[in-house]
Amino acid sequence: MSLGHRLLVLLLALAAPACSGSEDPAGGQSTSGQGAANPGPQAPNPAQGEPQAGEAEQNQQEIDSTKPAFLEVRLKMKGTGEMMGGVPFDVQWDDEGAPSKTASGTDPDGTRTLRFDHGAQLIAIIPRSSAYTGPTFHSDKTLMLGGVTHVVEIEVPPGGITTGTVYSETGDPVPGATVTAFFKSPDELDRESKPSVDIFTTTDDQGNFALGGFPEGPFVLESGGDHRVSVFRPGGLIREGQRLDGLEIFLEPAHEVYGQVIDSQEQPIAGARVVAGKPARRQNRKPTALEGIWLYQARAVVTKSDENGLFTLPAVPESQTWNLNVTHPDYRRGLGLIEAGQIDVWVTLEQGASVEGMVRGEDGRPISQVQVWMFWPSGQDTTFTGLDGTYHFGGRPPTEDVFLVFYKPEAGMLLEGPMSLDTGTEAVDVELEGGQLLGGLVVDAEENPVVGAMVTIEGRLPSPDYLRARMPERFLELDAQITNSEGRFLFTELDDNHFEIRISAPGVGEKVLENVTSGRNDLLIKLD
């Protein structure tokens, strides 16, 4: 009997319900220049005779469901093999069908042993940033067995390091300032209302900082607090293990701005998305002495109005004028301006035109995840139906020549319009019937099947000014095929329309068929 079969027999004989053990917290230590790690499970006590690291091979046949299982994590530096202590990591495992997670960190020797219940299913081990290592991800589907120590060795990448100084508005270094790092681009950061900090540190008495553990990729550094905000903040791309010295963060006094979003009747609008920031903040970046590193202006503030239409911008630089961009599904976009030093502002939104409805199948049941496009002469938008089959487009100015396209694989395709939108809501319910077919056989002059002929289709435009590129079969890339080994072609899931069909085969001939109605699969096309 093989070792694998013996393990399976023992496991079936000794199996107990799988559940994670409740570990005692171990003292997690902060790494220099990093945020404090969450406490993790306590390592076992060797004096109690519990399995030790490296005993997995000896214990393969000593599975005991009444004993705990042990996971030994070993973290080594990529490239050097050096054992890395002080590296925080998370362990994800399956706890009786529910994903669970615990936080821990390696001891000075670069290892840590954790205890789990017999039968716990490991999912992943995720080393996080430390002073000298970057984050990584290790997938592992090991079934942890009682009485056995499972050893997992992971290479961690060298982390990038940044050093620099935080300056006040007077050009003086700022001691005790918090410096935060985000592992994303300034554009990504600008779109988030409450971005999570990846790592952070505090400046020393001279306003200097050192921060390690960056993964390869984009990053942004910020500082602030004590009614100050970063008006120039470094960001760009950092390579694996790269060190960037001499970075500078410039602060300026900031204040809160209070605002309200109202409608034309001066009634509050709840749930409006408010984006506030300096005009052209993304384009007006300053180069630094480091290649690929720039000084970006203050980050935008993204928030929403509450049930009374109120919102707060917590840190607007006192010397800057900021723009406000306010959107809501049921209203037209509103713009506002915050002058330097201004502490309150309100924005009025005008009622917009909306389109909403439900998508059903032939059986009358709602269809979810149907993609819906709305086209108008100067733009377009898209959304998906929800679980109840409904969709909604809102906040549009009054518009004419609006078209809707509905599509879901196997459910079908539909083009609706034109329609005119005025203030208020237009209801458009549709039914998808699985889509129309269009197919046939291509033969040569002797009526032999033509293999590899190119077949393209173009549907009739719904209006003379409608763009060909917006025809659903075109932008969904369902408008071209090559005949198969029997000379046949078949287009499926088309809109109910009339089509022009073009067929060509080098050395055989070509033909154009006009005004062919969809729903046919019996076309016989002879190339002369």
Overview features:
528 residues, mainly beta, eleven-stranded mixed β-sheet, four-stranded antiparallel β-sheet, 3 helices, 39 strands, disordered N terminus
Poorly predicted ranges (pLDDT <50, ≥5 residues)?
1-59
Mean pLDDT: 87
Rg, Cα atoms, Å: 32 Å
Percentage of residues assigned to helices: under 10%
Approximate shape: globular
Report the major sheet. 11 strands, mixed
Q: What is the first-to-last residue Cα distance?
A: 70 Å
Provide a brief overview of the structure:
The chain is mostly beta strands and 528 residues long. The protein has 3 helices and 39 strands. Strands 10, 11, 12, 13, 14, 15, 16, 18, 19, 21 and 24 form an 11-stranded mixed β-sheet that branches. The chain has a 4-stranded antiparallel β-sheet with strand order 5-4-7-8, with no helix packed on it. Strands 20-17-22-23 form a 4-stranded antiparallel β-sheet, with no helix packed on it.
Description:
This protein has 528 residues and is mainly beta. The chain is built from three helices and 39 strands. Strand 14 and strand 15 form a beta hairpin. The protein is globular. The N and C termini lie far apart (70 Å).
